[in-house]
Write a structure and sequence with these properties.
Blueprint: H1 2-26, E1 28-33, E2 38-42, E3 50-59, E4 63-66, E5 71-76, E6 84-93, E7 101-111, E8 116-119, E9 122-125, E10 130-132, E11 134-137, H2 142-145, E12 149-153, E13 159-161, E14 166-169, E15 173-181, E16 191-196, E17 203-205, E18 209-213, E19 217-219, E20 223-225, E21 233-237, E22 243-245, E23 250-253, E24 257-265, E25 270-279, E26 287-289, E27 293-297, E28 301-303, E29 307-309, E30 317-321, E31 327-329, E32 334-337, E33 341-349, E34 354-362, E35 378-380, E36 383-385
Parallel strand pairs: 1-7, 9-16, 18-25, 27-34
Antiparallel strand pairs: 2-5, 3-6, 4-5, 6-7, 8-11, 10-14, 12-15, 13-14, 15-16, 17-20, 19-23, 21-24, 22-23, 24-25, 26-29, 28-32, 30-33, 31-32, 33-34, 35-36
């Protein structure tokens, strides 16, 4: 009786143990991770008896497993949809004389969210138009921040894109612009749907007026309404002896007078006009003069005013100094006395005429009544030319 009772206890023990092990083999854990985040899968709580032949497998997902024995650290290396199944399998037996049995534990790993986003997600462009796409990381960690992204079009004949996201519409159709990154698999990369379609113009405009001199050429740029509408143009002058216009809208003055330039949008026949006045060339100066010398207190300012001959001549001026530590001059001939000493200020005309002024910067007298002087002051000889307040 005692022997049979002992056998019954062993059978009960093995039955309970087998049920427990079967339950453990079917249990699993589930975790949602960011890209770059690590989760430890530890099967030690399910281990009983003697063990052998430990193995780990991964089915699905972009994860990296590191570790040994009954644990693995699982890191998500790329965003993926769905899930990754991590499984640890091993053999066990309770006693050395017992047969080997198989046991396992399973974990399900999912991604929380795609770390890369694109903006905008839809674009409608006319052929020839451009737009810029941007990408951003929805969250940041060391792993995500180090992953550079780039853009790519699935149909470069419809819309092309640079690595930095500049989209150029080429012909009517649809194209998907994806942003790829090593932290988001190609099948899960965010994209922008680009629709390229021809936008018909409803009008065209030109600047109301343009002034050119004889022999001078200036461009006229038509504005098509609405923005993004595509069309080609034809150009016409009502007086080619006064002003002519090229097929690309370049207006050239021929002789003094007035003319009207008209542009026609060939897609729709819309027109616009610009009044062009052609002037005679300005008289070039024969001579330029400025004051030959100026004495200034340190820290004071003075304005040089060049005079042209003949008086009806026109030109532009450029200014310079040979010692900016003593005196500087701006583009309008405004001198500022910075330090003691002498400097030469030079003015040049467009036709290469020159004039020079010697600036002598002196120390401000201690007994000078500054309350009655402004800073536009100079010294000529021993006389003070002052502006009283």
């Amino acid at each position: 009786m005692f022997i049979f009772r002992e056998l019954d206890l062993k059978r009960r023990y093995f039955l309970i143990l087998t049920v427990c092990l079967l339950f453990v083999s079917k249990t699993y854990s589930q975790s949602a991770l960011w890209v770059g985040e690590t989760y430890r899968c530890d099967a030690t709580s399910a281990v009983m008896g003697l063990t052998s032949d430990i193995s780990w497998t991964n089915n699905g997902g972009y994860v990296n497993l590191t570790g040994s024995g009954f644990y693995r650290d699982v890191k998500v290396t790329q965003y993926f949809s769905g899930s990754a199944t991590i499984k640890c399998t091993w053999k066990y037996r309770l006693f050395s004389s017992d047969r080997w049995r198989t046991q396992s534990k399973t974990w399900t790993i999912k991604c929380k969210e795609n770390p890369v986003s694109i903006s905008p997600t839809e674009l409608t462009l006319a052929p020839g138009a451009t737009a810029t796409l941007t990408y951003s990381h929805k969250y940041s960690n060391e792993y995500v921040s180090a992953a550079n992204a780039y853009f790519s079009s699935n149909d470069g004949s419809v819309a092309s894109v640079t690595n930095h996201g500049k989209v150029t519409a080429l012909k009517p159709g649809k194209a998907y612009i994806h942003v790829y990154s090593k932290i988001a698999s190609a099948s899960n990369s965010p994209y922008c749907l680009v629709t390229v379609k021809e936008i018909k113009p409803t009008g065209v405009s030109l600047p109301p007026s343009l002034s050119v001199i004889e022999g001078e050429s200036k461009p006229l740029t038509p504005t098509v309404i609405p923005e993004g509408a595509s069309t080609s143009f034809s150009w016409e002058s009502n007086d080619n002896l006064t002003a002519k216009v090229s097929s690309s809208g370049i207006v050239t003055g021929i002789k003094k007078g007035k003319a009207t330039i008209t542009v026609t949008a060939l897609n729709g026949g819309f027109t616009a006009s610009c009044k062009v006045e052609v002037k005679e060339p300005p008289v070039a100066p024969m001579d330029v003069t400025i004051e030959k010398s100026v004495r200034l207190y340190k820290g004071f300012e003075y304005m040089l005013e060049p005079k042209l001959s003949p008086t009806n001549s026109e030109t532009t001026f450029s200014w310079g100094t040979d010692d900016s530590s003593v005196a500087t001059v701006d583009t309008n001939g405004h001198i500022y006395a910075k330090g003691l000493g002498k400097a030469v200020i030079k003015v040049s005309t467009k036709n290469n005429l020159e004039a020079k002024c010697e600036v002598n910067v002196v120390e401000l007298p201690a007994d000078l009544d500054l309350t009655r002087l402004d800073k536009n002051i100079r010294i000529i000889g021993n006389l003070v030319n002052r502006t009283l307040k």
